Queue: 4 jobs
Job 1
Amino acid sequence: MENTGITRVEEEFSNLGKEFHTLKEEHEIYLKKLEELKSLQARCMSKVNHQQKRYKLLLSALNRKGLDLSGEDQVKVNELKKNIQKNKSDCQEVTESLPKPNSTFLSVILGRVSVSLLTRADRLSYKEEYERFKLNLSLITQIFAILLYGFIELRFIDAIFHFLLVWYYCTLVIRESILRHNGSRIKGWWVTHHYLSVVLSLTLLIWPDSVTYKLFRSQFMMFSMYMSFVQLLQYYYQSGCLYRLRALGEKRDMDITVEGFQRWMWRGLQFILPFLYLTYIFQLYNAYKLFELSRHPQCEEWMVGAAGTIFLLLFIGNFTTTSRVVLEKSRKAFVKNK
Ligand code: COA
């Protein structure tokens, strides 16, 4: 290397050295702030816990039976109860931006690593990422099911498809538990639905390439194609809700109001519901077909009855939960409009 080359490297190294020095200073400040943040989080958490415990005690004292109150005192008690409730819900809001210990399920799967998302923006981003993950996997399973239905009939490729579904539903269960940990109101049934789907996919994975498997295979592939299509519709509904929620929170899109959001949600629901109910009828039909196959003279596998039972459970759970959600939403809308 020439002399001028070495000098240039020396100069650049010395400049980088100065930059490195400021980087180290800033890193030290960062570490100090991180420590401060942790101790602030712990302090806030202990204060919130203390407040919540005290409010509980105060409320039970005010609710104690046998208190002989005059009209004026009763007004005071009611006012106190209202204020305590308000503070309690403010405390709840505070806890949303503080790290929480993992649920037992998450602790077993992930260990003690914290999965608390501390800002609303982080929570929405995680939810968006979860919806995109479902969209991508729905597209992959859609293509896979079309190929298996129309072009490929090899048991080991079917096994790869079933295995992909096992992995997909296991991942969904974990992601949904993280979402619920961070305040999502996902109904318990949808998580149970994915547990049952794991068991169903495992049952299909280990079902031998028998007469009954061959008799059910085409119907299952058709069902998978249809379900992936419905999942795409669900993605457009959920991502539309998320976009509007984010815009409402940030107040960045002035065209979006709470009423506008409700109107959009109802239009989305009216569009998606017929497709959802058709999925449930398909699930019921799968259960019927499998129970019929379990009486086939050449049926020797327990998987036939087991898969039939799971399809039946999925039908009952999905049908009742979706109907309940729609009824609840219409009741709330009716009360609001009154
Ligand atoms: N899976 C995962 N999360 C779901 C969900 C589902 N099936 N249904 C609702 N959620 C989530 C929502 O995103 C929302 O999350 P958030 O609290 O983080 O914002 C929360 O649960 C509450 O949603 P809710 O108000 O009860 O319903 P919604 O308006 O979001 O959706 C339906 C209503 C009916 C469209 C939706 O529940 C649905 O698609 N159900 C059918 C699912 C199904 O049958 N799957 C199997 C066949 S494809």
Note: DSSP finds nine helices and no strands in the chain.
Job 2
Amino acid sequence: GRQSASQRLCAMACRLLRNIRVPRRAARGWTRAFSAQKPPGEGRDSEIRVDASGLLQPTPPLMDFEFPEYMNPLAQHLYEMIAVTGSSLTIAEYMNFCLLHPLYGYYTTKPTVLGRGGDFVTAPELTSIFSELVCIWCIGLWQLQGDPKAIRLVEMGPGKGTLMRDALRAAEVLPAFHDAVRSGGVHLVEASPTLRRKQCETLLEEFGGRVIYAEGRNEGSGEGGAAAEASTDPTASKELPAALELDNGIRVTWYRDPLRVPEGPMYFIGHELLDALPVHQLIRVNDSWRERLVEPNIGDAVEFRASVIKRPGGLSEAPEAPADRMPGPDEDQFRVVAGEHPTEGLTAILDIPESELRPGLVVEVCPAALKLAQDIAKRIAESGGAAILIDYGGEGLPRESLRGFADNREVSWLKSPGECDMTADVDFSAVKRAVGEVPGVAAVGCVSQAAFLGAMGIRERAMALMNQEGFSDEDKEKLYQVFIRLVGDDQMGQKYKVMGIVP
Ligand code: SAH
């Protein structure tokens, strides 16, 4: 029969305890309290093994096996966590671990994921024109609002910092706007320490300046020898940059939470941000919604998954998985199942017409994106500013779209957690509904990226570049290819959408 959650917890705790090694000095006290032994067969003095197996009488552990070598640390960690808590992960939880786990997350540990040669290429990495046009959109709104003297230029999820670098360069053409940014500062919201360092590096390289570290240990460039060197290479220090004083007078400050950006008119940029926020998936079973969950792919995986997911209505017949068959090196380490009970909370934010409901329908919801959009909208309603959100997705039914990317190819996100990008289409209708609940702001769009860039003058800008002196035929050809990629119908032009939040 099935073990209860507490039995499983107990079994797992025992297994973990058995394997704890403590340094000899720390263990001396324990030696008296429990009967500690040297690990059998190991003559080393430096550690002893505490045999805690006598403390509890465990039921047979759910996962009394050695993890296979090919299973990465995050997969092992999640297997253990699921066993310890006795409950599967929501897809949103799984996605959060995969992307942002402090030690094993995709964004937290892999600084090279973006750009050519990385796992995916984003528009700002293709050409500076994209970021220039985003900057011009901000300038337009700033002018419409009577050119406030100090504004906060905010970007969330800045990746390598490329967009902000090119936008700040573009801002130099309008000194009054540049001054306003200088007065209010640039504010970057980033969850990944690795990418924060990368952003710091990108901006320093372009504009020069000095890094400010958290605990007031500031290192200046210009004056002073060794310290100056350290400051121009943010990767050299273990400490995380807290801010940056650029030589152009602009101060850049980092945050994890967008609500920490100080008051004042805020011009907010989110490019390929919302698609990285964790989604939940719900599946229609009989007349209710059940949340889809992620669990270890132990046992008779293929049939289990296929029948559970694909057969409408038949979810309770899931076979009990034998605990002895681990997924092989090329198989998914995890699988998706439907929760046993109807889920209520998330369905409140769904807006699916009755006529669309049918057994087996899978939809996605992203409460994190909705909350973020509302938070930004409230700020804009209070203090002015605007937000531009660019992502793939659309306004239709929020169908299942979560997918994994590595090496510019789609891969299974259930295979090796933390080793691929995970991304889901943005449900712009839901984002607009969320913004609509905030008085004093309006959601505009969404429009296609092609329409947006066209309206912002991408053709004119590209032509101007092409006619520049020293622009070779080869450069022209390259620029043309990039242009097509950004606005082409079957390329980014229609897939990507742009929406704004304005007062
Ligand atoms: N805008 C960049 C990068 C897109 S990748 C570009 O277009 O090239 C997504 C970015 O969002 C990464 O920088 C990632 O670390 C960041 N991110 C993901 N989840 C986040 C969260 N919850 N809070 C802040 N940043 C997040």
Note: The longest strand covers residues 385-394.
Job 3
Amino acid sequence: MKRLLFVCLGNICRSPAADGIARTIASHRGLDWEVDSAGTGGWHIGDPPDARMVEAAAARGIDLSPLRARQAAPEDFVHFDHVYAMDRNNFSNLTKIRPPGTGASLDLFLSDAEVPDPYYGGAEGFDHVLDLISARMETLFDQLTAS
Ligand code: 4NP
């Protein structure tokens, strides 16, 4: 049993995509893991994911429609085992709310690169983000199940 949290800025584009992709992979692999997502910002609290991301994910069989945005909180570092930031700005903001001595790891999701924010871009940005996240998520699950 592992608990994973994916974090971006608004929790309506990148981290809900990561959330849905991780849930789908966990289900395919028969893993009873807890998966969630959050944003460092609070502007979209309670909102569903961006309709463009919902549509792009649905075309790949990933249902994001039940998800609702929430803001990341210090307690997340107590509850979750692993917290993944989509970009360096998210990472930096998470370090500011991370209580000292909490057990959760905090990493950049792509290790040494960022998932670009598709919010102000075109539709191809959403597919690119889904490609990036899907490829990394398979590797991440391989690593986490081996550890
Ligand atoms: P996300 O994209 O961080 O991938 O959810 C964004 C969504 C909304 C805003 C910024 C980024 N915004 O400024 O409202």
Note: Helices lie at 14-28, 51-58, 76-79, 88-97, 123-146.
Job 4
Amino acid sequence: MNKEVSRRTIVAGNWKMHGSRVANQELLQSLTALMTKDNLSTEVLVFPPSLYLDGVSKQLADSDIGFGAQNLSEQAKGAFTGEVSASMLKDLNCGHVLVGHSERRSLYNESSKLVAEKYKAALEGGLIPVLCIGETLAEREAGQTMDIVFRQLDAVLDVVGTEGLSQGIVAYEPVWAIGTGMTASPEQAQEVHHDIRSHLRELDEALAANMQILYGGSVNGQNATQLFAMSDIDGGLIGGASLKADEFFQICKAAG
Ligand code: PEP
């Protein structure tokens, strides 16, 4: 299936709470070596734990790989023990930040309202937010997938409007596919991506045409090509497979 509009693909690796200084260095060394051999047209990003961002920033200074944080505070600064602000991430040269990952929503009770505030804080701090949205298995089985996804998207639109949303990236990640090995089929994923784009089109034609919508949920070297061939899938947010340089690189190649 051909993409009608030329949106640049993105492959983003969410390292979650994995790694160490040595392991990160080795992973990035392998990845940068693989990437210099091939001329990839896709944008490649990594999201290490915040503690390691400074080291990653130094190591990636001369590379084409971008990086960002997995989370940020909705507050700009002040007495918020344990939190990290957008300006601090910017200070470490981060370009992007994940907001609303399903693990943050479910394990740390982040509401859609809070996720929207974080999205806004990211934009105000000069970062590109990657908004993660997706339904649980129970919600899918109850036929509520699009209700949930639209609700999560609309919460952000309510706070930053179409102009704000257009400055970020959306990642559709069905919760039942994250870390389970149970990926959505290319058709299942395409259906949701298509509906998200149609939802955006009702608000703004250009927003819908230009929005990069990534798929996430057990993407690996085997299934990436078929998923990324779908017309509304503009790349992927990769968890487990982003920790293995060879496989992550294979996924990047599948995206272009
Ligand atoms: C994720 O953490 O965003 C993710 C998609 O994980 P995995 O690829 O391991 O399912």
Note: Residues 14, 16, 173, 178-179, 216-219, 237-241 surround phosphoenolpyruvate (CB under 6 Å).
